Amino acid sequence: MKLHSPQFQRQLRRGVKRAIRESRELKKEYRQAKKFRKHANLGWFFRGVLSIAFGGGVFAITAATGHPVTGLALITLWTFGWVFIRAQSLWALLHEHLDIPTLRLLPVPEATIFRWELQKFLRKAFMSLLDLVAGFGALGLFLKFSAAQWLAVQPIALLSWLTLMALTALCLIHVPRKVYQMFAASLVIFGLFLLFAHNIVGNALLNLLDRTAPDLNLLLPTGWPVSLFQLLLPEGRWSALLLIPVALVIWSLKNSLNRLRNDFRFEEQILPVVPDLVSGMDAEDLMDEHDLMEASPAAQSSHHLGLTAIEEMVDSRLFLVPESWHQRGWYEKWLWNWMDAREKVLSDFVFPKGYAIIAPWLKALRNLVIAVTAAFVVGLVSPTGKLWVLGIGLFITVMQALAQTMNNGVAFRPMFCSGVNIPVYAGFGIGYRELSRLLVKCSVVQLPLFIPFITVCGTLVAMMFDWPWQMGIIISFKTSILLFATRFIFIMFAFSGGTNDSSKFRVRTLMLFAAMMSLGGAFLGLGAASLLVPTPAAWIFPVLAMLDAYVLLAVYGWFYHANRFDLMNIPRR
Fold it and tell me: What are the CA-CA distances from residue 421 to residues 43, 184, 315, 425, 565 (Å)?
């Protein structure tokens, strides 16, 4: 940022440096702040390693199949995934970045602030261009390109990157943010699944990618500029037609940025007046004739209570009546009866609008039936289309099931206070064990629904890859147990995300890392053994993996109750 007076800027910079040199406390804070720069540098390093690894993956898959179009399909999928991740990153920079409240106090136009934040985003998004260069470079090495062909690769990579940026802006405008969050979570889960079962499903996924590679490059918008790579091959002259949709997508980038700039305005949000809510009855039941006469027409139309009705609610303590979510169904009632008195009160805090079980699972089951039916109908026309419809439907329904089972409510929602983030539960007398026990109960009670659902989905996947359905049942049943075991790990991470357990380099921090790494490694090993070992004794491994995850949650609880860290963390810029 440039101030209006360069001379003042130089004097201010020199004065700050002089004050830091003369103060021991300021030197300490300066060293602490420099850690964030080191973290940023390490982030760039590991991101570069990821780009190189991606290029190696493209080369390996192309060499395994012998088809360059399959390597292009992997680049298409990789870029398509980053569209949603970049959209979420840009949204956070424009609406949640710590600099925004401070920058709005400066006498600078909002368009200037938008340009600064956009520059930060482009510096981060530059690594996606490195991904594309690595992917296309791996294909060039495999095909042994000439010097002229290597020069032609550069504009293709640039066009692919510009398309990624344009699609990111379009998604930020037209796609709900929940899609970005669900997609990011699904990437983690899919990565864990591949880590556990790559020896089982690796060849099947590779064959699926090889069969559907031309369709992927043609249907996904990120595949249009990637397909231009085929212009460098003898049989790819037709791909020149894709320059038209690529140009249209890139042309939309200017309009999208203008719309984002126009929406980037600081305005006071004025919420509409909502009607009064009364537990257990409608507002009209408490409004007597005197209150209705005193109320204005607008208040009467919006069902606002009068003074007498409010006093009656306070005297009768009706306003303290909690949400009766346990009366929504027999499953909710079962969970309610399992809770003790403390957990029932705690559930009203964690789930202010109640905790629904039957309705979300019925919705997931409905979507599964629709996906299977649609796949059957599409399969009558296109076998490849059948695989994609079924795969997308299974992905959506499994994500719905996981979201229902892994629901943490509002307990860990961060509150920004005095430069730090504090989880909501930390402001109340809520302990680690009681909160984690409540969340575990809410998940355990859904095991009779979760395991059969994941087993059915896994069996459908096995049938999709022409595997024996018996093997599909066994593998999917074990996978459901492992997925449920990750619930303990995710609860631990939810607590850890609201603490400063790793912000200081101390002996206890090393002990915490050692415990987490050893138990986490044991969980990965047991999970892989449960899926890869064919003997009947392998059934003990999923149980041991679940026990290991529970021990991991308990060990972190020991550090938590030993006051090894504070319940706050400093947001990183």
Answer: 22, 22, 38, 12, 14
* CA angle centred on 187, ends 181 and 188, rounded to 5°: 95
Give yes or no for a contact between 276 and 305, defined as CB atoms under 8 angstroms apart: yes
DSSP assignment of 72-139, as one string?
HHHHHHHHHHHHHHHHHHHHHHHHT-THHHHHTTSSS-HHHHHHHHHHHHHHHHHHHHHHHHHHHHHH
**Does the model's pTM come out above 0.85?**
no
Q: Can you tell me the distance from the alpha carbon of 504 to that of 31, in angstroms, rounded to the nearest whole number?
A: 12
CA distance 9 to 19: 15
| Cα 387 → chain centroid | 25
Q: Look at residue 570 in the predicted model and tell me its pLDDT.
A: 62
Would you list the DSSP string of 171-234?
HHHHS-HHHHHHHHHHHHHHHHHHHHHHHHHHHHHHHHHHHHHHHHHHHSTTHHHHHGGGGGST
* Closest residue by Cα to residue 227 from 51, 387, 68: 68
Q: CA 20 → CA 8, 404, 455, distances in Å?
A: 18, 51, 61
**Position 486: which residue type?**
T
Burial class of residue 197 (count of CB atoms within 10 Å of its CB; 0-12, 13-18, 19+): buried
Residue 296 has pLDDT above 60, yes or no: no
Quick one: DSSP state of residue 339?
S
* Phi, psi for residue 107 in degrees, rounded to 5: -80, 60
Segment 516-525, tens digit of pLDDT = 888 888 888 8
Q: Which residues contact 453 (CB under 8 A, 6 or more apart)?
A: 361, 364, 365, 368, 397, 401, 480
